[in-house]
Amino acid sequence: MTMKTKTRTSFRCQECGYASAGWLGRCPECDHWNSFVEEEESSTSRQSGAARARSITSFSSEIIRLDDVQVAPLVRAPTGIVEFDRVLGGGVVPGSLVLLGGPPGIGKSTLMLQVADGLTRSKGKGLYISGEESLQQVKDRAHRLELKVPALSLVSETELSKIVDALDKVSPTFCVVDSIQTTYREDMSSAPGSVGQVRECAAELLRLAKSRGITVFVLGHVTKDGDLAGPRVLEHMVDTVLYFESEREQVFRLLRSYKNRFGPTHEVGVFRMTGRGLEGVKSPSEIFLNERTNAPGSVVVASLEGTRPLMLEVQALVSRTHFGFPKRMVTGFDANRALLLIAVLEKRLGLHLESEDVFVNIVGGVKIKEPAIDLGVALAIASAHRNQTLDPATLWIGEVGLGGEIRSVGALAMRLAEAAQLGFKRAIVPQTNLREAGRELHSLKLDIQGIRWLSEALQEPSAQGSKG
């Protein structure tokens, strides 16, 4: 007599993994709408799932005192791509699981093929697992990039057990999985890319990386909102999370580190798409300021991305509105913070912007979140409103408070050193920074002026330019 396999139906949120017995329009865990998908799970699959959960811990160690733990030196393998190594913290760490996310067509597969080319020179054999393209397509891309990687093995596979078999046959030192959304376990009934599949496949790849000392790169797609497709737990499981921020239509591609257990976070690498793939930009500040025009509303600010200072141009345009409600459009900067700065200019400085359309843009497609460019954004809006050009050789640094005060910023000496190297002559900075880091700034060939209030910035000679 054969026993029937019992099945259980549940609904699972595709954003956070929350499970419910019935369908819900809005997830109570992550507040996403229409994210529940029906999944069937048999009793045998639940038993195998428990066994998988136990097997995940197979690389765990015995209980030992902290003082008795032997720490081996952290050895990194360079990829040969300077910008990529910078974001990772100096190179690839053996046994790490790295997640690379980005929109379709941004260059994830291209970058991974270039990384594989560099790692075969320093780490030996590699395995590239393509679940979205055929082997001929991968070979064609390598031919376009003029890459010859004899130590790299290719396999087109999406089923996890067969991927593990390929790893057993090749025994590589690193592996690329393209992508996690197409990888699936055959013993699970859910579709590839679902919460359960992504979570289980990532857990197995994590176990393989830690137990065998293999560096595993996992590629992931992002949704239209810019979030990684699949469960949020995926980002917590991996060691490093890298994101391409720019759009594929833009010339420059920004690779940012959001999580790194073996190095600094919030590092950024600047790439440029060429006929031979992605090339690192050694001096992005020069590129961003290369086409700058001396017009009203144009200001240069110094932003710090990880350990790298970037000189960026902020452009503002102020024009009289033809509607009852003025527009406020911001690109590359927090829109709410721009509204805050507009309110400070109106209240503390008496600028009449209530009937003006205000447009703010960070040139180059860069997205800046730190408040150190507040002063530059406020000066750009004031310059566009008064139709006066600012001194092109002056740099503006500082955070603006609600009272109109200029607050200190971090790593001022690093920002000013980059500005002096690029040929800037003058810098307007917070007065409190001059008292804290005065000695570090003496060697710089810059005329550094400290201010305490936003009103002082508008009275500076650099801000008293000619009418446009």
Structural features:
468 residues, alpha/beta, seven-stranded mixed beta sheet, 13 helices, 25% strand, globular
Short summary of the structure?
This protein has 468 residues and is of the alpha/beta class.
Structure description:
The chain is α/β, with parallel strands linked by helices. Helix content is 29%, strand content 25%. It contains 13 helices and 21 strands. The chain has helices spanning 43-56, 82-88, 108-122, 135-144, 160-170, 195-212, 233-237, 284-288, 335-349, 374-386, 412-421, 431-436, 454-459, and strands spanning 7-13, 19-20, 36-42, 97-102, 126-130, 152-155, 174-178, 215-221, 240-244, 252-260, 268-274, 277-280, 298-305, 308-320, 328-331, 356-362, 394-396, 399-400, 406-407, 426-430, 447-451. The strands form 4 sheets. The protein has a 9-stranded mixed beta sheet with strand order 6-5-7-8-4-9-10-11-12, with helices on both faces. The longest helix has 18 residues, at 195-212. The model is unreliable at 42-57 (pLDDT under 50).
Secondary structure layout:
Blueprint (H helix, E strand, L loop, with lengths): L6 E7 L5 E2 L15 E7 H14 L25 H7 L8 E6 L5 H15 L3 E5 L4 H10 L7 E4 L4 H11 L3 E5 L16 H18 L2 E7 L11 H5 L2 E5 L7 E9 L7 E7 L2 E4 L3 H5 L9 E8 L2 E13 L7 E4 L3 H15 L6 E7 L11 H13 L7 E3 L2 E2 L5 E2 L4 H10 L4 E5 H6 L10 E5 L2 H6 L9
Parallel strand pairs: 4-8, 4-9, 5-6, 5-7, 7-8, 13-17, 15-16, 17-20, 20-21
Antiparallel strand pairs: 1-2, 1-3, 9-10, 10-11, 11-12, 13-14, 14-16, 18-19
